[in-house]
Amino acid sequence: MAQDSSRPDFWETRYRDHVTPWDAGRVGRNLQDYARSLKPGTRVLIPGCGSGYEAHLLAEAGCDVLAIDFSSAAVEAAQKNLGHFADRVRLADFFAFDAGAAFDVMIERAFLCALPRKMWAAYAARTAELLGDTGVIAGYWFFDENPKGPPFGTSPEELQALLGDAFSRIVDAPVADSLPVFAGRERWQVWARRRS
Ligand SMILES: C[S@@+](CC[C@H](N)C(=O)[O-])C[C@H]1O[C@@H](n2cnc3c(N)ncnc32)[C@H](O)[C@@H]1O
Predict the structure, then answer these.
(1) Cα of 17 to ligand 1 centre, how many Å?
(2) In this structure, which residue's CA is closest to atom 5 in ligand 1?
(3) Looking at the domain assignment, is residue 116 inside a domain?
(4) How far apart are CA 38 and CA 18, in angstroms?
C-alpha cells in the first residue's frame, strides 16, 4: 500500500479495498446540532469529504455545499450517497482548486489528521484564504501524541499555534459518539475568523 497520505493513491487504495476505519456511515451528533444553526444558503466547503454523509445532511438543510475529495473512489461513493445532490461533490485537491468566492463555513472531519504534519501550515493558510474575512471552521479535531499516522493527532497548544493567528476558538465541546479510531481523543470545536 502507498504510505504517503498526501497523495491521492494512498486513499484510493484504501477506499477500493474497503479499509476505511474513519468512515462513520453517519453524521456525528455535534455536527447534526451545528447544522441546525446554519441558515439556508450558507456557503459550506467540506474538504476531504470521503463518503459525503456531512455533505448530504447540509445539502438537505438548504446549505450551498461544495464537497471535495482528491480520491476518485471517495467522490464516487459520495456522489452515490448524495443522490439528487450528487452535483455538489467534486474531484479536487484542497490546496489547488479554484474556489471562486469565499466560503462561510468549512467543515473539518478527519481531514487535518489525514494530512502529514509537514502540510499543516499550508492547511492553515489555505483555510484562512478560503474563508475570507468572516468565515468559520467547525468540526472534529483529533488530539493525540502518537507521532505515527494517519490519523495524525495534534495538541490544544499546537492547534492554537496553527490556527490562532487567523481564527479564535469559540466552541470546545466533548464528543460522545466517536468511532473507535478516535474515541476519547477528539473534540468538537468551532473557530471563527479573527477580524484583521
Ligand atoms: C481520513 S479520510 C476522511 C474522509 C471523511 N472526511 C470522513 O470523515 O469520512 C481523509 C480524506 O481526505 C482526502 N484528502 C486528503 N488530502 C486531500 C487533498 N489535498 N484534497 C482533497 N482531499 C484530500 C482523502 O482522499 C480522504 O478521503
Answers:
(1) 16
(2) 50
(3) yes
(4) 33
What is the rounded average pLDDT of the residues 116-134?
96
Full domain range(s) for residue 183:
8-193
Phi and psi at 73, nearest 5°, equal: -65, -40
Amino acid 3: pLDDT: 86
In angstroms, how far is the first alpha carbon of the chain from the final one? 44
Residue 72: exposure state from Cβ atoms within 10 A (0-12, 13-18, ≥19): middle
Can you tell me the distance from the alpha carbon of 135 to that of 24, in angstroms, rounded to the nearest whole number? Answer: 26
Residue 98 belongs to a domain with what CATH number? 3.40.50.150
User: 3 in a domain, yes or no?
Assistant: no
Question: Does residue 113 fall inside a structural domain?
Answer: yes
Quick check: is 52 in a domain?
A: yes
C-alpha cell at 50: 470521503
Choose which residue among 81, 93, 111 to substitute to test ligand 1 binding: the one with the highest number of ligand atoms within 8 A of its C-beta. 111
What Cα–Cα distance (Å) separates residue 188 from each residue in 24, 31, 154, 162, 171? 16, 8, 14, 17, 8
- Model-level pTM? 0.97
Give residue 76's pLDDT: 98
pLDDT, tens digit (0-9, with 9 covering 90-100), for 14-58: 999 999 999 999 999 999 999 999 999 999 999 999 999 999 999
pLDDT class for 196, splitting at 50, 70, 90? low
> What is the count of structural domains for the chain?
1
